[in-house]
Amino acid sequence: MPKAVSIFKFVGTISLGLLTGTSYTLTTATLPSLLALPTAQTCSTALTHLTRYATLHRRILSNVAWASLALAYAVSPRHAKHPYLLWTGLATLTADFAPTFALRVRKRVVVGEEEDGVGAGRTGEEDVNGETVRRDVVRWRKVEAVRAGLAGTAFAMAVVGIWGDGF
């Protein structure tokens, strides 16, 4: 059983590292380069596709990380049930859902918009306003920066926890 616990901790930590890297790369490289595309239509189409695929991969990584860390805690012997596994799992879920939730609440309360997400409702064939696309990219970049910070904190907790366990 100790080998299974180590594998779960390792998989959870690696998934958190990938999640952190994905959000960091979106924030620093991918989203700023969308703004350099020649037309608003091209940027809007790229943003829609990027949003869909990045969300899919982010959800997979965060679910794998959370499930692995929760399983590591569940199958650990009583004397080895370290609370950092639960805190790291909670930070992983927070990194995945809190920034998007906060953005939606802010949009409904402060701005009064009913749109469900970045780039939502765009079909790609309609006339696209460049300022709206720029605002969506900037907004998503801020959300991903917060997500990268939260995921990075969870990753740091996992690394320190594994190091403290002696693995």
Distance between the termini: 14 Å
Strand content: under 5%
Can you count the helices? 4
Helix proportion: over 70%
Poorly predicted runs are none
Secondary structure class reads mainly alpha
Keywords: Membrane, Transmembrane, Transmembrane helix
Main location: membrane
Family: Belongs to the ATG33 family.
InterPro entries: ATG33
How would you portray this structure in words?
This protein has 167 residues and is mainly α. The protein has one domain (2-165). Helices cover 80% and strands 0% of the residues. It contains four helices and no strands. It has helices spanning 2-34, 40-75, 83-111, 130-165. α1 (2-34) packs antiparallel against α4 (130-165). It starts with a helix and ends with a helix. The model has no long low-confidence stretch (mean pLDDT 85).
Structural topology:
Layout lengths: L1 H33 L5 H36 L7 H29 L18 H36 L2
Helix pairs in contact: 1-2, 1-4, 2-3, 2-4, 3-4
Keywords: Membrane, Transmembrane, Transmembrane helix
Family: Belongs to the ATG33 family.
GO cellular component, one term: mitochondrial outer membrane
